[in-house]
Write a structure and sequence with these properties.
By secondary structure, the chain is an alpha/beta fold. It is built from five helices and six strands. The protein has helices at 13-25, 40-47, 63-72, 90-93, 112-126, and strands at 4-9, 29-34, 51-55, 81-85, 98-100, 103-107. It has a six-stranded mixed β-sheet with strand order 2-1-3-4-6-5, with helices on both faces.
């Protein structure tokens, strides 16, 4: 079974490294990281991820703007996006994902077990029946 491809976009190098180490350590994921929001579209086109983890608050472009660019791209528009944010706390979410309309959020710092559950849930929703 091929590893699932996850693109992690966050301006904080420590966060992208930590998530990459934890996900790749599970042996089920191939992870690419991007620390510049403006380079996300190019990285996604090159990597063709199955899911994107996207920080909400970044310099130059926020996660909402990046998500809009991804949704406007005919090749990338259907890739699930999970937003990572420090604007809500783990205490507020109980460490679990929070859904607001079409948006899915995880509070930072992410709990690896909850992150993998969230990733798997959204990848299953994308899989053809």
């Amino acid at each position: 079974m091929a590893a699932k491809r996850i693109l992690v976009v966050d301006d904080e190098l420590g966060i992208t490294r930590g998530i990459m180490m934890n996900l790749e350590g599970a042996g089920e994921y191939e992870v690419r990281t991007e620390n510049k929001a403006r380079d996300t579209l190019t990285a996604a086109r090159d990597f063709r991820p199955d899911l994107i983890l996207l920080d909400v608050m970044m310099p130059e472009m926020d996660g909402g703007d990046v998500a809009s660019e991804l949704r406007d791209d005919p090749v990338l528009k259907d890739i699930p996006i999970v937003f990572l944010t420090a604007a809500i706390s783990i205490e507020e979410t109980g460490g679990h994902e929070k859904v607001s309309g079409p948006m899915v959020y995880l509070a930072k710092p992410v709990v690896t077990s909850e992150l993998t559950k969230c990733i798997e849930r959204h990848l299953r929703q994308q899989s053809p029946s």
